[in-house]
Amino acid sequence: MPTVAIVGASSDPTKFGHKSLVAHRDCGYDVYPINPKGGQIEGLKAYRALAEAPVERFDRVSLYVPPAVGLGLLDEIAAKGCDELWLNPGADAPEVVAKARELGLEPIVACSIVDCRKSL
To answer: Are 60 and 112 in contact (CB under 8 A)?
Structure first.
């Protein structure tokens, strides 16, 4: 089962960080919600930081955070490792894309929910 970290996961069903979690779960991903508040979202343990998730390397990391937050997380994402880094609308500022590339990540600037839904 492929793994995905939803960075900016939310318990609010109106937020895309929640919609993405549900969509990826429905698409067959093993979902790891990342939210600094921790707790649970949709019955899944939410991790306060990507480094806390019990996964060696993610298949996919999908960002739903403002660019300033995303910039601060890129070093942690690069250290953890992922095959795909998705910068969703609102998280896809040019400076985030540039820093991701500097760190050896190849960001995908698109909506991961749309991509996930294509596989259904």
So the answer is: yes
Kindly give the interhelix angle for 67-80 and 94-102, rounded to the nearest 10 degrees: 20
pTM value is: 0.95
Per-residue pLDDT tens digits for 75-105: 999 999 999 999 999 999 999 999 999 999 9
Quick check: 73 and 50 in contact, CB under 8 A?
Answer: yes
Sign of CA dihedral 88, 89, 90, 95: positive
Instruction: Find the domain containing 60 and state its range.
Output: 3-118
**pLDDT tens-digit series, residues 1-59:** 999 999 999 999 999 999 999 999 999 999 999 999 999 999 999 999 999 999 999 99
SS3 for 89-108 is: CCCCCHHHHHHHHHCCCCEE
DSSP state of 50: G
The CATH number for 90's domain is 3.40.50.720
